[in-house]
Design brief:
- The chain contains five helices and six strands.
- By secondary structure, the protein is of the alpha/beta class.
- It has one domain: Maf protein (Alpha-Beta Complex), CATH 3.90.950.10.
- Strands 2-1-3-4-5-6 form a six-stranded mixed beta sheet.
- The longest helix is centred in the N-terminal third of the chain and has 16 residues.
- The protein is globular.
- The two termini are 18 Å apart.
Length: 210
């Protein structure tokens, strides 16, 4: 039996891009969201070996520290030709300065070393796992995925992370060229295209009343 989210909710992220996306999605349901940064919550070390484990870890840490339900995402880019890398290490490839330009260059360099130039050799997908944790230890998890290919050079300055090099299947624009509505707008305004939007739609159906 799923548990409903009511009242205030902590968004357990210190990533500004994720925070904007999550607030926009939650706002559609009238949920009052406060960020981990606003509450001065520490950022836990991500010691999990899967997206789900890290999302759960972050949500539980925020729920315990705040005494409120907490919502966390763990997501990343999975590149087939790189045996799933960068995967759960997607953010860490950008270093302490969060230089995703450098991270994208690293991905591209590794693909070139493997002579991966054709679209079918550059298939990749984004994964997002959303976890909601309550202070009493109850946790709900939801996963979303979007498939595509990697382009070079990167295109667009919207979005964040690896968005400028990710071309979702069936589209001519990269995530970096799409507006927030195109990327993660929910029906009927948008298609719920992004991995985070797809995971959120599952969460909303189970835990949010509209």
């Amino acid at each position: 039996m799923h548990r409903r989210i009511t009242g205030r909710l902590v968004i357990a992220t210190h990533n500004k891009g994720k925070l904007v996306e999550m607030r926009e999605l939650l706002g559609l349901y009238g949920v009052e969201a406060v960020s981990a940064t606003e509450l001065n919550l520490p950022e836990p070390e991500e010691t999990g070996t899967t997206f789900a484990a890290n999302a759960r870890l972050k949500a539980q840490a925020a729920a315990t520290a705040s005494g409120l339900p907490a919502f966390a995402d763990d997501s990343g880019l999975v590149v087939d030709a790189l045996n799933g890398a960068p995967g759960i290490y997607s953010a860490r490839w950008a270093g302490e300065t969060k230089d995703f330009g450098r991270a994208m260059e690293k991905v591209e360099g590794m693909l070139r070393v493997r002579d991966c130039f054709r679209p079918e050799q550059r298939e990749a997908h984004f994964v997002s796992v959303l976890a909601v944790a309550w202070p009493d230890g109850h946790v709900e998890e939801f996963e979303g995925r979007v498939d595509g290919t990697l382009v070079w050079p990167p295109r667009g300055e919207k979005g964040f992370g690896y968005d400028p090099m990710f071309l979702p299947g069936g589209f001519d624009l990269t995530f970096g060229e799409m507006t927030s509505e195109q990327k993660h707008g929910l029906p009927p305004r948008g298609e719920g295209l992004s991995h985070r939007a797809r995971a959120f739609m599952k969460l909303a159906e189970a835990c949010l009343a509209r």
